[in-house]
Amino acid sequence: MGDRCGSFLIFCSFIALFGSSTEAADIFLEWDVAFNWTIAPANTDQPVITVNGMFPGPLINATTNDNIFVNVFNNIDEPLLFTWNGIQQRLNSWQDGVSGTNCPIQPGNNWTYAFQVKDQIGSFFYFPSINFLKSAGGYGPLRVNNRIVIPVPFARPEGEFDLLIGDWYSYSYKEARGVVSRKTYLLRISNVGTSVSFNFRIQNHKMVLVETEGSYTSQMELDSLDVHVSQSYSVLVTADQQTSSYYVVATPTQMDTSGLPSLNGVAVLKYMSSDVDVRSRVFYWSSEVHQEKLFIGTCFLGAARPNPQGSFNVSNVNITQTFILHSSNAIINDSLRFTVNNVSYFTPEIPLKLADFFFNGSGVYILDEFPVETIRDNAVKGTFVATGVHKGWAEIVFRNDLDVMDSWHLDGFGFFVVGFGDGEWSHSSRESYNLFDPVVRSTVQVYPGGWAAVYAFLDNPGMWNLRSQRLQNWYLGQELYVRVFDPNPDPTKERPPPQNLIRCGIVSINSTVSALAPSPGGLA
Ligand SMILES: *[C@@H]1O[C@H](CO)[C@@H](O)[C@H](O)[C@H]1NC(C)=O
Ligand SMILES: *[C@@H]1O[C@H](CO)[C@@H](O)[C@H](O)[C@H]1NC(C)=O
Ligand SMILES: *[C@@H]1O[C@H](CO)[C@@H](O)[C@H](O)[C@H]1NC(C)=O
Ligand SMILES: *[C@@H]1O[C@H](CO)[C@@H](O)[C@H](O)[C@H]1NC(C)=O
Ligand SMILES: *[C@@H]1O[C@H](CO)[C@@H](O)[C@H](O)[C@H]1NC(C)=O
Ligand SMILES: *[C@@H]1O[C@H](CO)[C@@H](O)[C@H](O)[C@H]1NC(C)=O
Ligand SMILES: *[C@@H]1O[C@H](CO)[C@@H](O)[C@H](O)[C@H]1NC(C)=O
Ligand SMILES: *[C@@H]1O[C@H](CO)[C@@H](O)[C@H](O)[C@H]1NC(C)=O
Ligand SMILES: *[C@@H]1O[C@H](CO)[C@@H](O)[C@H](O)[C@H]1NC(C)=O
Are residues 290 and 203 in the same domain? Predict the structure, then answer.
């Protein structure tokens, strides 16, 4: 192991190059976001949110450090926000596009996001973040390519495909057509669904895993790959079989779909000059294929942000704070809510970030009463915010008290995924951590009745959303915000609000100053 990683040490020195880019491009996009009734991705008619008439939405094809400007025209009949899953928005949570950071774009209005994909590479996606809209579409792929001067730890592929897997429609991929024999392709796979984990595989082909949400992994050859909700991977596939067409299949991992083939996502990998119509063949796949745990080491190839010592070796970092977060559900005031340590998030009318800026959060949220290591003995709905110690290392343990697969995501940072386990987490669970070469990613899966542990280096001041990626759980309260505060007012530090800041609630344009007086409490 030591040799494996040691030999890649040279790549660390390239990381410094990220910051000194002079080549960053500006990418300007105009998005018309609408409901289209005419596209029926499943067999039933349902409205689909399209971007510029497309479903899935258009690819954002960026390169490290590019500045992206997305002018979103909200032509649906509901308030809208987009978030950029896995894009870290360095020093700039103002562009994160979640309910705690931005007022929504009202129907008929437009708003321009402006953000930099700083120091990042990888496969990501965007989606509408509020009001359950993700279940109606509106998502699309977001690539951050390497700058040309940065070495990539694999030969340049012949082509790239973005594959989005969703859980309510069956033909979710683009067809990968005209693949040339013996050439290697990069597939960027994201699970954009709301609740279902998929096992992804390609008939007769092996895949080589190379990237998870922004960091290169040590390369593993796989027959299949589990992709949990909101996770992304890049894999290399070599067209090394006889010229033909092959099935690309995504099967739900925790359901028996043998009698329900329509629940499987199916696409076709078609070799150039192949005239085989794969759909006329019967292709058998087992619905039992299932990866128990994908626990991969990464080496410090110039991709994700390493720790401040310049490597992914976190065995000598000092943990500043520990969060032990139990996700569960509870009946609160006669309705089902999802909870974290028996707190179900209540979304205030004014985003936390604006509340912070205009009146120091007063009256909108309660700082530091969130029970970060214990479970409240009664379930409540409330707006609690946890402090994340700036430049500290946080250890976050996600414990899943429910019997369904979950996945968790923190905006603004990468997770160093150090451990998984069954049952309860205890202090002695730390002995099983992989601190040596943990993979770095932004969304970690948490197995039913088990736990996952991550480290995060909180070097990015802002108001950051920590959430279950299961849409229903998130929507019904399974989230919290972590406020990483840097008191240094240096303007090169955390960005001020953008000029085009949307105001709402008690700081809306038309409100009077007296409306800014603190209102009582943060409990709903
Ligand atoms: C979807 O809606 C957009 C915006 O109204 C429109 O431009 C586009 O043509 C529509 N596409 C389809 C396939 O109906
Ligand atoms: C994406 O951008 C890269 C780098 O500029 C370019 O090589 C590639 O052709 C682009 N891909 C697409 C699909 O636009
Ligand atoms: C709305 O779109 C117009 C026209 O493209 C643009 O000039 C304006 O800046 C946009 N408004 C916001 C708030 O981004
Ligand atoms: C990782 O850090 C630990 C503790 O400092 C050290 O013992 C170990 O050699 C390091 N591993 C590598 C590969 O640098
Ligand atoms: C961790 O804390 C110990 C004891 O305070 C200190 O000696 C060590 O330098 C710290 N390590 C890092 C990486 O900050
Ligand atoms: C802002 O709120 C924080 C935490 O509630 C408090 O410690 C601080 O003193 C407040 N600052 C001002 C200027 O009121
Ligand atoms: C969480 O709250 C519920 C209902 O309010 C309560 O019954 C339960 O005991 C609490 N959980 C823990 C671990 O205290
Ligand atoms: C239930 O609703 C009432 C009335 O809105 C509110 O006062 C109370 O705090 C709520 N209870 C919880 C546990 O949130
Ligand atoms: C503010 O007030 C003006 C005049 O009453 C009204 O036209 C406008 O729509 C209001 N704007 C908002 C954001 O409420």
Answer: yes
* Shared domain check, 439 and 505: yes
**93 Cα to the center of ligand 9, angstroms:** 27
CA proximity to 307, closest of 452, 194, 440, 174:
440
Pocket flag, ligand 8, residue 332 (CB < 6 Å)? yes
Ligand 5 geometric centre to CA of 318 (Å): 6
Write down which residue in 124, 147, 170 finishes a domain. 147
> Is 21 touching ligand 3 by the criterion CB < 6 Å?
no
Range of the structural domain that residue 56 is part of: 19-147
Amino acid at 36: N
* Residue 433: count of CB within 10 angstroms of its CB: 19
Residue nearest ligand 9's atom 9 by CA: 510
pTM of the model: 0.89
Res. 305 pLDDT band, cuts 50 70 90: low
Q: Is residue 12 part of a domain?
A: no
Which pLDDT score, from 0 to 100, does residue 453 have?
Answer: 97
Query: Is the minimum distance from the CB of 208 to ligand 5 under 6 angstroms?
Result: no
- CA of 61, closest atom in ligand 2: 1
Question: Are residues 362 and 489 both part of a single domain?
Answer: yes
Is residue 311 packed enough to be buried (19+ CB in 10 Å), middle (13-18) or exposed (0-12)? Answer: middle
pLDDT per residue as tens digits for the range 74-118: 999 999 999 999 999 999 999 999 999 999 999 999 999 999 999
Task: Answer yes or no: do 117 and 187 share one domain.
Answer: no
pLDDT of 135 reads 87
Residue with the nearest Cα to atom 14 of ligand 7?
377
Q: How do residues 359-388 score in pLDDT, each as one tens digit?
A: 888 889 999 999 999 999 999 999 999 999
